[in-house]
């Protein structure tokens, strides 16, 4: 259906693709994996018509193609479903599906009845229930992705590319998306699935292509490979420990949260984070974990309860006071809330400590670069220069910059929300090693994660939330996938190996 061979793409002196190759067959779901910066996104953007290749071959159904726009790619039957769909929020589901190509009646007016019937037929064909007349605003990411897929099917796209489609989905939503993907495969379409989640790749895909450092490494049937082999091909070495947790001496309480309540969001949240301890906060999407973290940091309001650091009560809604007291928050959405995308790596790394760098109210580039260089080096941020615009970095390197920005404040307590979402296995191991090292030096860490292996592998204690309440507190030795998931899906109770 689609074949790229030895594709090259450079941006000035930066070579994003040295030799990218990929083949998609009809009636097949193909995985594309690689570390951040391996060239996956660049390859996809060439297929989507966003970029033009500098060299190499690109064939669609056996014919040579060279797209100069996304419109040409769509017209050729290619659709890309991104991690965060971009629908028009004020328009209905139906209007979003048929945007720019609405059917008209004999009077030249938009035929809304036909549009609605076609939308209903599309959802029925995909086996999902979404009201075609409801506004897109407020829809879950999962529903938005299904709408994008429905749009692709209505255009009779023969090649569908899904770029990290499950990153923000719950287990039930992932199952529904996979059912839709399999039905499209069975219709003879070619699907490309890009993900860092190996369990999903093995559950869904037929074949996998591995890329490393902008070049093709190997293509293998899923049945003939293993996670260890894929990781070895991705990073060029054995990753012996994904969760390098070292034992740390647990000290006195640092962060104490008592009775924190916000009506309709979370209720009576009480927990402690001690020096040298990594506390995992687990639960399903929508359980209220990020909202609690934001309230503790002072970004979001709460109606009752108290937050204490080192025994001193922090004022509500004052993140500046939380920072000066010694709390740092690495947010879930690094692009919207963690970075100034248009600013340089140096500016982002020094953003929170600018007052410390100023002399007579002036901050020099030299002072900014010296402060940034420390953390860029320590966290091994891959960039040609500190002047590089942060928005051009890979996801893993953006996460490192956000982490470095907050570690520069020398916090007592680090709250880190989804520390490894959307980053590759090699960078995950680096982030985990850093968290373990920080805890070993006496920092208290509250780690929010939707990935159970990460919670079980890194946390000394696991707090489980469900519908805005903590339903269980489980010690590391007793924590299992079963009892954490039980607490995440059932009301507060005495779960096996847990104490509430």
UniProtKB/TrEMBL annotation:
CC annotations in GO: plasma membrane
Pfam families, A to Z: ABC_tran
Record-linked SUPFAM superfamilies: P-loop containing nucleoside triphosphate hydrolases
InterPro entries (UniProt xref): AAA+_ATPase (IPR003593), ABC_carbohydrate_import_ATPase (IPR050107), ABC_transporter-like_ATP-bd (IPR003439), ABC_transporter-like_CS (IPR017871), P-loop_NTPase (IPR027417)
Ranges in coiled-coil conformation: none
Highest taxon above the source species: Bacteria
Protein name listed in UniProt: D-ribose transporter ATP-binding protein
Organism annotation: Agromyces aureus
């Amino acid at each position: 259906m689609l074949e790229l061979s030895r594709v090259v793409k450079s941006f000035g002196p930066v070579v994003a693709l040295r030799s990218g190759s990929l083949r998609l067959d009809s009636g097949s779901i193909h995985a594309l994996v690689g570390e951040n910066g391996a060239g996956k996104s660049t390859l996809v953007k060439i297929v989507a018509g966003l970029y033009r290749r500098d060299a190499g071959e690109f064939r669609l159904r056996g014919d040579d193609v060279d797209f100069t726009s996304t419109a040409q790619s769509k017209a050729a039957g290619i659709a890309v479903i991104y991690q965060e769909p971009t629908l028009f929020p004020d328009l209905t589901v139906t209007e979003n599906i048929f945007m720019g190509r609405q059917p008209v009646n004999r009077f030249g007016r938009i035929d809304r009845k036909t549009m609605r019937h076609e939308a209903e037929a599309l959802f029925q064909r995909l086996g999902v229930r979404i009201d075609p007349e409801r506004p897109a605003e407020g829809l879950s990411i999962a529903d938005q992705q299904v709408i994008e897929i429905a749009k692709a099917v209505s255009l009779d796209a023969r090649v569908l590319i899904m770029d990290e489609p499950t990153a923000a989905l719950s287990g039930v939503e992932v199952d529904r998306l996979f059912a839709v993907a399999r039905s499209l495969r069975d219709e003879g379409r070619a699907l490309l699935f890009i993900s860092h989640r190996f369990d999903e790749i093995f559950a869904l895909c037929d074949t996998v292509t591995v890329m490393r450092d902008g070049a093709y490494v190997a293509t293998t049937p899923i049945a003939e490979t293993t996670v260890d082999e894929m990781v070895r091909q991705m990073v060029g070495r054995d990753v012996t420990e994904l969760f390098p947790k070292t034992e740390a001496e647990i000290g006195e309480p640092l962060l104490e949260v008592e009775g924190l309540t916000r009506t309709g969001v979370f209720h009576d949240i009480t927990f402690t984070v001690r020096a040298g301890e990594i506390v995992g906060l687990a639960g399903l999407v929508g359980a209220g974990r990020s909202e609690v973290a934001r309230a503790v940091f002072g970004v979001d309001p709460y109606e009752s309860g108290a937050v204490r650091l080192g025994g001193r009560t922090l004022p509500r809604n004052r993140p500046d006071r939380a920072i000066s007291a010694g709390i740092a928050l690495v947010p879930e959405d690094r692009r919207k809330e963690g970075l100034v995308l248009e600013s340089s790596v140096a500016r982002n790394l020094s953003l929170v400590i600018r007052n410390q760098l100023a002399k007579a109210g002036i901050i020099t580039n030299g002072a900014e670069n010296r402060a940034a260089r420390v953390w860029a080096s320590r966290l091994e941020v891959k960039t040609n220069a500190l002047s590089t615009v942060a928005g051009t970095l890979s996801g893993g390197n953006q996460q490192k910059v956000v982490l470095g920005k907050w570690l520069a404040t020398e916090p007592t307590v680090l709250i880190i929300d989804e520390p490894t979402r959307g980053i590759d296995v090699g960078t995950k191991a680096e982030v985990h090693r850093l968290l373990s090292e920080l805890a070993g030096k006496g920092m208290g860490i509250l780690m929010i994660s939707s990935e159970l292996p990460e919670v079980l592998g890194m946390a000394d204690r696991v707090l489980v939330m469900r519908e805005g309440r903590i339903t269980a507190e489980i010690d590391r030795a007793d924590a299992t996938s079963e009892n954490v998931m039980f607490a995440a899906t059932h009301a507060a109770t005495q779960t096996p190996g847990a104490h509430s």
